[in-house]
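User: I'm curious whether this sequence folds into something compact or stays loose and floppy. Could you predict its structure so I can see for myself?
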Amino acid sequence: MHPDYPEDDAVMTERLRLCPEGCFALTADGDLLGYAVGHPWHARSVPDLDTLLGSLPEPAGAWCIHDVALLPEARGRGAAADLVGLMREEARQRGLPALVLVAVDDAAGFWRRHGFQPIPEAPPPGYGAGATLMVRDAITPA
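Assistant: Here's the prediction. I'll summarize afterward.
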């Protein structure tokens, strides 16, 4: 769903193995309409794109939203907000104070509407020149 940010199948397989509670699928009538992948990570940072992690940090400082992808027919129905809510709840259950992500292309406005704010730390270079590292409190509702 993100042709400009390809990742090897092994990356997603590893995320599912390391943190199955952070992998969500959005379906309708048996069709996949979108997905979200998240996991514990270091505060105010994200892993490099298309990189195997090996393990998750302990202790973790934040919940990393690695990916949220929706097909066009799933957009505008609140699905993204629901997926972010599921991620926020997982972070809260783990006692993680924040969520962190990289907004690519023109997605920063979308993430701002969900309570995320840009921070000065730079994301890894694989996310592209316009990428923005963003965080939000895991406790406060969007």
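Summary: Residues 79-93 form the longest helix (15 residues). The chain has one domain: 9-137.
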